[in-house]
User: Fold Phytoene synthase from Guptibacillus hwajinpoensis.
Amino acid sequence: MLEQAYSHCEAIIKHHSKTFYKAFSFLPPTKRKAVWAVYGFCRQVDDIVDEGTDPEAQLKVFRAQFASFLNGQVPGNDPMWLALEDVFQKFPMEPQAFHDMIAGQEMDLYKTKYYTIEELEHYSYHVASTVGLMLLPILAPKKVNELRDSAVALGLGMQITNILRDISEDLERQRIYIPINEMIASGYMVDDLLNHRLTEEFIEVWERLASRAEDHYEKAFSAMHHYPLDARLPVKSSAVFYRAILKSIRKKDYNIFEQRAFVTEKEKEELLAGIANQ
Assistant:
C-alpha cells in the first residue's frame, strides 16, 4: 500500500515536471520517494487553484485536511497523504513551509496583477521558496539552518524563471506577474503586453527580471557545498536545468508569445556532464 502511494506521487511529478523528476532521480531511494510525496502535495494545491470547479471551497477543505493530517489523522483514501505521513515519520519536517505554500497558491484566487518586484518576490517566496524549505529536512536534515537562505534564493530564481517563460500562458488566465511598474519604467505598457508586442522595451524588462533571477541562483549556488553528497548533484542539477531556461528563451529571440521555451534532454545531459566535471 505504501509503495503504491509513493508510485502514485512519482507518476505525478514524472508527468508534470520532467526537469525536477530528472534532477531528483539521482537521490537515494528514501529521499527520492520523499521528494515525490512533497511534490504530490504541492501539485494538489496548485491544481485546486488552477483547475478546481470551486477553488475557494476546495482549498478550504484541503487546508482542513492538512490540519487533520498534522493531528495524526490521514485524510480519506488519497495516496498522497499516506506517502506524506511516512515522510513526516522519517524526516524532521517543518509544517510552516506547507502552510505558507497553501497561502501562496491562495493568492492566485484574489490577486492577478503585480506592480513591484517586492510584491512579486513575496508571492514567489510563498509558491516556490517554500518548496525548497519543505525539502530541506529531507535533503540535508543536519544542515537546515545553514541552507535556509540558499533554499529561499533558489526558489525565487526558479519562480521568476517560470514567470519569464510562462508570460503568454499566464495572460490566458488573466494574470500578469511581470511587475507593471517595471514595465512602465521601460516604456512598455500593459496594453503592449496584452497584445503580445515583442519590442526592445519588452526585452529590457525581461532582461532586468532575468538578471534578478540570476542573482538568486548565484546566492543559492554559493551555499550548495553544505548539502550532503547524496543531495548535492540533484539540487545543483535542478538549479542548472532551470537557469538554462533563460538561455533557451534568449536563443529563441525572446519570443515567449508564440512558443514555450524548454531545455532539451540532450542539453540536460550536456549540463549534467558539466556539473560532474566541476
